[in-house]
Design brief:
Length: 800
């Protein structure tokens, strides 16, 4: 029955939204344009550093608590991240000019520059240079200028008689200046930063240091690089920023190409693209509003929002336009076809958007703050995409009419044109017939096919190394973090870049040991740690310069060294002892995390014997990675339960069939595990990666569960509609035939948009893009047309 367009708007809104959209098509288009223009005119750009948290770990995380305790007891030796400026003279010894340059850079790190960070921001940094250590250990530099510079550093520590120490003291090993070897000699300047290494504030500090180095060229032949955890974060952010432009371009190209293939009509292809692009422009300003309100949204989250919004929004639009074209073939006028198409697809589109948004919104319950802020933002973006699909897209279709399919003419009963329908649209009758005739065989084969790679998930190695996949690069004469690591490995243990910091504290309700007792405790702990395979060196109260370096006797340099060591490694007033442990492996590697677990156990066992009641607090990059791993693994388990629960409730409300709903949820889990297993095979066995990036696990699950179920909802909704006029098996066969082309197109669009992440320049985006694209293809071409219909045919489930 055709719709009546002569009823009042309010009544038509209640009865069928499609007719109301048609009547208000011009107003809807104007509203979207005005809202977008208004947001860009009134909402200022966001300031990423304004409301950013210093760390993305929860405030009660053991790592955060340890770093806060270290900051109170040893503020100059503590930072949530660290910049390590590396200087190298290849093939020779550092010259006087080299040493002068190194110490000059160290002295200027905390000085603001016009247009850069303020002195107030830089005053929170603490800098340790080779010159400062020279002063403490009595190493002669042979330069009056250097002596004056060292005296300035000495003044900050309250040291007396620096010239006597420098002139008369013995030559000891400076841990921040390497020995002269065939590869040359190198020096290190450490900068402790009071914010996490993946924060915008930390990146600003690293940017400031790099600008200082670029504006003050080093002596000829001296190589300079910036590494450390802060350097890792800076480089990571740069690669993400570059990836943003590449993934945006790849997404738009993929959407345009697939839409042109699907519709074979340029105007029809542009309708969903224009609508979702306008919606994306709106959500970009919404994110600015959210960030100005106090929430933190990183660039990586923006990339994820953009890609997922295009994929989901175009999918919703395809479902509507496909039904519109189907109704045009029945002879309905254009205005009736679009109204009835929207009425027919509105429940499925809304249910899909609901599962998408509500499923991803479950990330808000995570404790890891990146997940916690990403969930609501992506959910809001999907709501805006849904709103565009059910208002702006039908309004544009209504304005264009059947002419939008030019050069193909859509006539009753067929499409008239020179181009035949794509092959993908002609294979579905055969698939539908085989699935409904032999559902048992299809079900068993599909389950076995997916179960084999799913078993591989038990052996996946999750990688937490932020430096993985970032190549060594030099820009304007300054190397990046990877280049700095290459230099450090030639002259020091790799652990020198990010030492493990251990704090031993006395409970408030117990008396603290005396100074001599603390020295005995320190000696015991050092001996225990040196026996661990993988511990390269230890600096502590009893050996402040490291293993094997004996201190001078009762001389001025000896007294100075002990005085500095006591302040750096011991706080008598607080009852705290500090140790620095250098590992023989990269601080963010899996081996380093295993070593740190052993270190903690050994220290606790030793303290139980020599200092019962004392507590262990561990800081540094390795401890931070362990804290992130512990937090995110707990978050993942919680998110799995919440997401599957939400999807179950939404699909059950739509289908009103608990058995079918339960099977759909089980199919989600199986397809996710199969995808994860296949990706692990591809990246670890074929490409040779050390493992899978830890973020892939949760983001792949959330997207596959929330978005992947859309296609099952589209199919199940059509089965329910067809079952009103025929038997279950026939209804399922018809549903596969009618939804096959459009859902295949939707799946290809989603796979292409999510797969565009592979255009990025870091391993995370490569793995995430590949796994998301593969997951969407498995859902589109295996779960939806084979697994779900086979189960429905066997148990005669049609919903409602």
């Amino acid at each position: 029955m055709l719709l009546n367009f002569k009823k009042p708007v309010t009544e038509s809104l209640r009865m069928n939204p499609g007719k109301n959209i048609y009547r208000l098509r011009w107003i809807i288009l104007a509203c979207w344009v005005l809202v977008c223009a208004g947001l860009y005119a009134l909402v200022p750009p966001d300031d990423p550093a304004k409301n950013e948290r210093v760390s993305f770990l929860p405030a009660n995380s053991p790592y955060r608590l340890a770093m806060e305790k270290l900051a109170r007891g040893f503020p100059r030796q503590c930072g949530l991240s660290q910049a390590v400026i590396v200087f190298e003279r290849p093939g020779g010894k550092l010259s006087y000019r080299d040493n002068t340059y190194v110490n000059d850079i160290a002295s200027r790190v905390r000085q603001g520059r016009p247009g850069g960070l303020s002195n107030e921001d830089l005053a929170k940094l603490s800098v340790t240079s080779p010159g400062l250590i020279d002063l403490a250990i009595g190493t002669s530099t042979g330069s009056e200028m250097m002596r004056k510079g060292l005296a300035m550093f000495a003044g900050k520590l309250g040291q007396a008689q620096p010239k006597e120490a420098i002139k008369n003291g013995p030559s000891l090993v400076n841990p921040l200046r390497s020995k002269v070897t065939p590869p040359g000699q190198a020096a290190i300047v450490r900068v402790n930063i009071p914010s996490g290494f993946i924060t915008y504030r930390s990146s600003q500090i690293i940017g400031h240091i790099r600008q200082l180095l670029q504006s003050t060229p080093p002596p000829t032949g001296l190589k300079v690089a910036v590494t450390g955890t802060g350097g890792y974060g800076y480089d990571y952010a740069n690669f993400v920023r570059q990836s943003h432009h590449r993934t945006t371009l790849a997404t738009l190209i993929a959407v345009i190409v697939i839409l042109l293939i699907v519709y074979r009509a340029p105007i029809a292809a542009m309708v969903p693209l224009v609508a979702i692009s306008l919606a994306a422009a709106v959500i970009i300003k919404f994110m600015d509003i959210i960030q100005n309100m106090g929430f933190s949204i990183g660039l990586a989250e923006r990339i994820f929002v953009f890609v997922l919004m295009y994929g989901a929004g175009v999918d919703y639009s395809l479902l509507l336009i496909s039904r519109y074209r189907e109704y045009l073939r029945t002879g309905r006028p254009g205005r009736v076809a679009i109204a009835e198409a929207l009425n027919a697809t509105f429940p499925a589109i809304s249910a899909s958007a609901c599962t998408d948004a509500m499923g991803i919104a479950m990330l808000v319950f995570c404790r890891f703050l990146i997940f916690q802020t990403t969930g609501p933002v992506v959910a809001l973006a999907l709501v805006v995409a849904w709103l565009a699909a059910v208002t702006l897209v039908p309004a544009l279709v209504a304005l264009l009419g059947p002419q939008m399919f030019w050069p193909v003419r859509v006539l009753p009963g067929a499409e008239v044109g020179k181009i035949r329908r794509p092959v993908i649209a002609r294979i579905w009758p055969g698939i539908a017939r085989r699935v409904t005739q032999r559902p048992g065989l299809v079900l068993v084969l599909v389950v076995l096919t997916l179960a084999i790679p799913a078993t591989a998930t038990r052996k996946i190695t999750w990688v937490y190394d932020a430096l993985a996949g970032i190549p060594s690069q030099w820009q304007d004469g300054v190397g990046n973090a990877a280049a700095g690591v290459d230099i450090v490995k030639k002259h020091w243990p790799i652990g020198e870049i990010a030492p493990v910091t251990i704090l031993i504290s006395t409970p408030m309700d117990k008396p603290a040991p005396g100074q001599q007792r603390w020295r005995e405790i320190s000696k015991t702990l050092v001996a225990r740690l040196e026996a661990i395979d993988g511990v390269q060196d230890i600096r502590a109260l009893t050996q402040p310069l490291g293993r094997g370096v004996s201190l001078p006797g009762d001389t001025t340099p000896g007294r100075m060294i002990r005085s500095v060591a006591q302040r750096q490694y011991f706080r008598r007033d607080r009852g705290e002892l500090r140790l620095e442990v250098l590992l023989s492996c990269h601080s963010m590697s899996s081996r380093a995390m295993k070593l740190l677990g052993q270190i903690r156990r050994d220290i606790e066992q030793s303290l139980a014997k020599v200092a019962p009641g004392c507590r262990v607090h561990i800081g540094g990059a390795t401890a931070q990675m362990i804290a992130i791993r512990t937090t995110t693994q707990k978050d993942f388990k919680l998110v799995v339960v919440l997401v599957l629960g939400v999807i179950f409730l939404v699909v059950l409300a739509l289908l009103r069939d608990w058995l079918m709903t339960l099977f759909m949820v089980a199919a989600i889990a199986l397809s996710y595990l199969a995808t994860l297993g296949l990706c692990a095979w591809a990246f670890t066995w074929y490409y040779g990666h050390a493992g899978m990036d830890w973020k892939v696990e949760i983001f792949l699950f959330v997207v596959m569960a929330s978005v992947g179920v859309d296609y099952s909802i589209f199919l199940a909704s059509r089965v329910s509609q067809e079952a009103r006029t025929c038997a279950p098996a026939e209804a399922i066969r018809r549903a596969i035939i009618h939804t096959g082309p459009v859902i295949s197109s939707c799946g290809l669009i989603m796979a292409a948009t999510l797969g565009s992440l592979m255009a990025g320049q870091i391993e995370l985006l490569h793995q995430l893009g590949f796994s998301l694209a593969l997951g969407m293809l498995i859902d589109t071409f295996i779960v939806r047309p084979l697994l779900l219909p086979a189960f429905a045919t066997i148990f005669k489930r049609t919903g409602r």
